[in-house]
């Protein structure tokens, strides 16, 4: 997989709909992470989806105007590629198409350390209780 290559997030990541690598990305707003997760879900096994902006806004709890800023953020930071309708599609008021893009944050290795809860006798105890 190459950086910038369209891909399907379906069954690639373990955990929530927001991959851990994306959750840890400090350069992306929380709403952008939610929007990315929703676009990923709409994409399913494909690398493209076409939900209406009003639908995305309603589903993640923000205004239609704000979802436009969030989509622009995802596009500016190369997490998605937006294809605007042209010609007949534009005249028919078709939705934008969104491609998920493979991003460098997904290249990071997952943390290898495992926490063994049975070893630490102070697990779940605050510093003041020890």
Automatic annotation (TrEMBL):
Q: What InterPro entries does the record tag this protein with?
A: WH-like_DNA-bd_sf, WH_DNA-bd_sf
Q: Which organism is it from?
A: marine sediment metagenome
Entry protein name: Helix-turn-helix domain-containing protein
Gene3D superfamilies for this protein: Winged helix-like DNA-binding domain superfamily/Winged helix DNA-binding domain
Q: Which Pfam families has this protein been placed in?
A: HTH_36
């Amino acid at each position: 997989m190459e950086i910038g290559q369209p891909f399907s997030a379906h069954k690639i990541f373990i955990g929530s709909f927001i991959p851990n690598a994306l959750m840890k990305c400090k350069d992306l707003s929380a709403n952008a992470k939610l929007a990315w997760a929703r676009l990923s879900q709409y994409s399913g096994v494909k690398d493209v989806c076409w939900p209406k902006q009003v639908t995305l806004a309603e589903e993640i709890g923000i205004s239609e105007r704000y979802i436009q800023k969030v989509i622009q953020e995802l596009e500016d930071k190369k997490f998605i590629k937006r294809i605007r309708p042209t010609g007949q599609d534009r005249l028919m008021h078709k939705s934008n198409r969104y491609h998920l893009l493979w991003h460098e944050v997904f290249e990071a290795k997952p943390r290898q350390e495992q926490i063994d809860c049975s070893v630490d006798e102070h697990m779940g105890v605050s510093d003041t209780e020890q």
